[in-house]
Design a protein that fits this description.
With 225 residues, the protein is an alpha+beta fold. It has a single domain, classed as L-fuculose-1-phosphate Aldolase. It contains 7 helices and 8 strands, in the order αββββαβαβαββααα. The chain has helices at 2-21, 78-87, 100-107, 137-147, 167-188, 198-208, 211-223, and strands spanning 30-34, 40-44, 58-62, 67-69, 93-97, 126-128, 152-155, 160-164. α2 packs across α4 and α3 packs across α5.
Length: 225
């Protein structure tokens, strides 16, 4: 398991660095992944510098926030991750981002609408109406309930949470949320943006939700590191 954990840590570090470089994570934000075969997760510590990540910044904790490996404390909002993992056996990775454009939409109660093809892989975006740091068990459970069986939930004035089947999928969906929101905002300045209908979403998702296309997004951002 040690080699697998090391690889997961390295992949998390890369994902966080890429999201920071894309201005989707700032001095806050956290990304986690389940440790296979356990009830533990790997997550960047609360004090980690998101623009200078190393594997030493990744700690292993249980779902109650107890340290299993590492010496730094986890982020206060580890409850986001723990509550989703408890509720969703299908979810293997979770990220809480602080994106600019999608957060702006949430601040004025504008939904993030599927206006670009890549939005087809996001599913129905959910909303958590409370503006708060999700730093208690109760808030974590409420957020997980808002997410339900979906992949993306927006936090009012406080970014987004994406939960998916692995680090790659979670990373790509976090990128697509922000790319879609930016284009939605920009298009709304000159007119009413076209919104994909259910049929288009189904057809496009079938074409875009493929491992090599998700990897293409990762490779594009990784090359910028």
């Amino acid at each position: 398991m040690t080699q697998n954990v090391t690889t997961l840590k390295e992949t998390l570090v890369a994902a966080i660095a890429m999201l920071e470089g894309a201005q989707i994570i700032d001095f806050n934000g956290h990304f986690s992944v389940r440790v296979p075969g356990t009830d533990y997760m790997l997550i960047n510590s609360g004090r980690s510098v998101r623009s200078a990540m190393t594997v030493e910044d990744i700690v292993m904790i249980d779902l109650d926030g107890g340290l299993i490996e590492g010496s730094a404390v986890p982020p206060m909002e580890f409850h986001i991750h723990a509550a989703i993992y408890r509720r969703r056996a299908d979810v293997q990775a979770v990220v809480h981002t602080h994106p600019l454009w999608s957060t702006l939409l949430g601040m004025v109660d504008k939904p993030v609408l599927p206006v670009i093809m890549q939005a087809a892989v996001l599913g129905d975006i959910q909303y958590f109406p409370k503006t708060a740091s999700i730093n208690t068990l109760a808030l974590g459970e409420a957020l997980a309930e808002s997410l339900a069986e979906h992949s993306v939930v927006m936090l009012k004035s406080h970014g987004a949470v994406v939960a998916s089947q692995g680090i790659l999928e979670t990373f790509v969906q976090a990128v697509y949320v922000e790319e879609n929101a930016q284009r939605q905002y920009m298009a709304s300045q000159i007119g009413s943006p076209y919104v994909l209908d259910a049929q288009a979403i189904g057809e496009i998702r079938a074409n875009l939700w493929k491992p090599h296309l998700l990897q293409k997004v990762w490779d594009y951002h990784y090359a910028k590191l």
